[in-house]
Recover the amino acids of this structure.
């Protein structure tokens, strides 16, 4: 179910009418689980079985980890590995099976049979990342105990199922253990946030679609100026699209009495590409940092390895956004920017960096340069293929 549809509007009206009558924690949590199931069934009904099965596997694995003594490190590692592999395997099969099959030559004539007709489950990238976070944090003792019903509310919390933000159990679960009616100010704030998100998505983001057409179907009708307008329009579109969905999710959560982390913090005001990724899709950026970049060694390795890891994790981030190689190249483009910035910030003496940072005019140049870098990268993100992106770049320059 998508937020900006009449079906969701009907779902929300009925849900909040019933939710206002809930009087206990247990009933509320059970109600939220049922709401999540209904919400998901409205998309591709059969895939709710997949979500529930993967949630059960994740819960079972986490329970086994909690019950296995810390001294049995090898056994705990195997349990964690199997739980993570189950989530990654499901994500890989449904979202990337056709891509890798075609690339490796396993599939001929466009992957016939099962993979050709496979529909990617709604929000599979989001719930698998949340499940992996849960398992890893249980393994490291960051989540020491959890109730079954709390985990399933976490897994099936419908406001964040479609487009995030990616939740952390430690921040979410404590809110499930207390019950208070949503007061009028919360209702007003939540409703405002939902309406703001809908306006961002439906009025601003969607109105950019005609202007972005040169990025999708480049050709003779368009001149150089059209491509530049298209690139700038796509920067507007993707920002208001992503922040719109996040605003709706945060607003819906507030209407239910929950606080969800902010996902965007004026990213186009970033002074460098590293700062941009601290402000853009914050829940995803922090997830990749904590569960991919740091396990690879983080910033503790030699400079060359750190730069390689930055590029690698951004390639993974690109692939997370879509099962096509142009997303991977977009990730490599972003990763190269992060690597160059990291090398620059380490090589240039700190006192010089401080003096440069104090120059107001240079800060404006930095913001503009970062925005230009990001905008050029969006061409790879928007284009349906690498060949199309190459055509757009030729016309841009």
């Amino acid at each position: 179910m998508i937020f900006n549809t009449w079906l969701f509007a009907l779902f929300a009206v009925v849900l909040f009418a019933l939710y206002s009558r809930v009087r206990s924690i247990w009933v509320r949590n059970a109600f939220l689980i049922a709401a999540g199931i209904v919400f998901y069934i409205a998309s591709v009904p059969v895939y709710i079985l997949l979500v529930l099965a993967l949630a059960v596997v994740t819960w079972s694995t986490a329970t086994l980890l909690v019950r296995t003594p810390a001294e049995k490190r090898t056994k705990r590692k195997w349990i964690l590995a199997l739980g993570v592999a189950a989530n990654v395997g499901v994500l890989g099969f449904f979202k990337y099976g056709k891509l890798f099959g075609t690339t490796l030559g396993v599939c001929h004539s466009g992957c016939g049979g099962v993979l050709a007709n496979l529909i990617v489950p709604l929000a599979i990238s989001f719930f698998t990342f949340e499940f992996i976070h849960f398992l890893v944090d249980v393994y490291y003792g960051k989540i020491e105990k959890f109730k079954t019903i709390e985990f399933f509310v976490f897994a099936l919390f419908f406001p964040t199922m479609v487009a995030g933000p990616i939740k952390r159990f430690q921040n979410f679960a404590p809110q499930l253990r207390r019950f208070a009616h949503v007061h009028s100010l919360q209702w007003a704030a939540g409703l405002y946030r939902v309406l703001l998100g809908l306006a961002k998505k439906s009025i601003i983001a969607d109105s950019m679609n005609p202007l972005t057409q040169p990025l999708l179907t480049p050709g003779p009708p368009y001149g150089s100026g059209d491509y530049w307008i298209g690139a700038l329009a796509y920067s507007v579109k993707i920002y208001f699209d992503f922040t719109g969905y996040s605003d709706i999710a945060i607003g819906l959560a507030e209407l239910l009495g929950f606080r969800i982390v902010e996902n965007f913090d004026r990213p186009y005001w970033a002074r460098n590409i590293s700062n941009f990724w601290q402000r853009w899709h914050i829940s995803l950026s922090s997830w990749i940092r904590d569960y991919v970049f740091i396990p690879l060694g983080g910033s503790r390795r030699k400079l060359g390895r750190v730069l390689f890891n930055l590029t690698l994790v951004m390639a993974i981030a690109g692939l997370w956004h879509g099962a096509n190689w142009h997303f991977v190249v977009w990730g490599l483009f972003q990763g190269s920017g992060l690597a160059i910035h990291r090398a620059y910030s380490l090589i240039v003496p700190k006192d010089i960096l401080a003096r440069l940072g104090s120059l107001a005019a240079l800060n404006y140049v930095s913001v503009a340069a970062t925005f230009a870098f990001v905008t050029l990268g969006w061409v790879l993100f928007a284009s349906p293929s690498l060949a199309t992106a190459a055509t757009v770049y030729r016309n841009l320059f």
Remarks:
- The chain has three domains: 6-179, 182-257, 265-397.
